[in-house]
Specification:
The protein has helices at residues 4-19, 23-38, 41-45, 62-70, 145-149, and strands at 48-50, 74-80, 90-94, 101-103, 109-111, 116-117, 124-127, 131-132, 138-139, 164-169, 189-192. It has 193 residues and is of the alpha/beta class. It has a seven-stranded mixed beta sheet with strand order 6-3-2-1-7-10-11.
Length: 193
């Protein structure tokens, strides 16, 4: 079991492993991820898809983004709120092809402008992670941004309007078991390659 005490150590070990993947391995993983995501009925029916731009060895979603655009889907990327950085909150912003990007405070690319969408209005969200288990628990980077953005999904009265949260990762990021914290938002499923 992975608990909070060892999560930060595990986070560093897994991040180091995924950063060591070469460009060829990363490219192949992104393409394999597209093939698996494209087969999901939830992706096929989704009109509004939340994605992310990879950093720090995360599995790349660019192939999926291009596929989504070709299929007429709208893509949304996370943008950190700057009004209160200590609150660790983010919004999702529409990202059509060719929109300008800039670096946020963590040096991660994000749209510099665009229309925001409520997290509840997304149909499918591809969630980055550091570690995951087969029960749908994840270890993120530690800021809690995704847990805050999708905390409403823990309310059983709102689950019918919730987006499908799909964790995406390299196989090497899987761990046997993660002890979830009360604030953790579980994933609907995890796709790993």
């Amino acid at each position: 079991m992975v608990d909070n005490d060892v999560a930060s150590q595990l986070r560093e070990i897994i991040r180091k492993r995924r950063r060591q993947l070469g460009l060829g391995a990363q490219h192949r993983a992104g393409f394999e991820l597209l093939k698996q995501i494209r087969d999901l009925p939830e992706y096929q029916s989704a009109k509004r898809v939340g994605l992310y731009l990879a950093s720090d060895g995360e599995i790349d979603c660019r192939f999926i983004m291009r596929d989504a655009w070709r299929a007429g889907k709208q893509c949304y990327l996370p943008v950190l709120r700057t009004d209160n950085p200590k609150a660790h909150q983010m919004d999702f912003v529409h990202y059509p092809p060719g929109s300008p990007l800039g670096h946020n405070r963590y040096r991660i690319l994000e749209p510099t402008h665009g229309a925001k969408i409520a997290s509840q209005a997304l149909d499918l969200v591809l969630v980055p992670l550091v570690g995951f288990d087969r029960q749908g628990h994840r270890i993120g980077m530690g800021g809690g941004y995704y847990d805050r953005a999708f905390e409403f999904t823990r309310n059983p009265l709102l689950t019918g309007s919730s987006p499908i949260l799909v964790g995406v990762a390299h196989h090497l990021q899987e761990v046997l078991s993660i002890t979830p914290q009360p604030w953790d938002v579980p994933l609907s499923t995890v796709v790993s390659v």
